[in-house]
Amino acid sequence: VTRRLSRDDGAIDWTASANRVAREVRAYNPWPGSFTYWGGGMLKIIEAASANGPPLAPGRVGALDGYSLPIGTGDGLLEVHRLQLEGRRALPAAEFVQGHANLVGSVLGLAG
Predict the structure, then answer these.
(1) Beta strand ranges found along 5-108 (DSSP E)
(2) DSSP letters along 36-58, please?
(3) pTM here?
(4) Structure confidence by residue, pLDDT tens digits, 21-74
(5) What percentage of the chain carries pLDDT values higher than 70?
(6) What b/e string do you get for 66-92 counting C-beta neighbours within 10 Å, with b at 16 or more?
(7) What distances in angstroms separate CA 86 from CA 28, 39, 48, 76, one per listed residue?
(8) Minimal CA–CA distance to 45: which of 76, 75, 70, 17?
(9) Most buried of 9, 24, 45, 53, CB within 10 angstroms?
């Protein structure tokens, strides 16, 4: 039995594996989209892949690695290539970090 997707299905569970989160990002694009919260607003993850690297706590944003932004998950890293703040245009990770350097080192999670 299947059910219709709802907007809430796109909320990223950072304790899930990086492979699962990466698959959800692909599957939920364009709707309902994969999203998390940062700085009091919604942050959409548009393009990402699972990756290996030094572990980070679930939801913790690492330093920009070339053109991708590593984020810790329950098992591995999610390498984010493109993201979008609510109400703004989608940007490559490197360009996003230039305008929002305080994202690096922060922890993504639920609203509030």
Answers:
(1) 34-38, 41-51, 69-72, 77-85, 91-92
(2) EEETTEEEEEEEEEEE-SS---T
(3) 0.92
(4) 999 999 999 899 999 999 889 999 999 999 988 999 999 999 998 899 999 999
(5) 97
(6) eebbbbbbeebbbbbbbbbbeeeeebb
(7) 17, 11, 18, 26
(8) 70
(9) 45
Does position 112 have pLDDT exceeding 60, yes or no? no
Query: Residue 23 is which amino acid?
Result: R
Q: Is 70 exceeded by the pLDDT of residue 77?
A: yes
CA-CA distances (angstroms) from residue 95 to 7, 60, 83, 87? Answer: 27, 19, 10, 17
**Nearest alpha-carbon partner for 79 in 90, 98, 94, 89:** 94
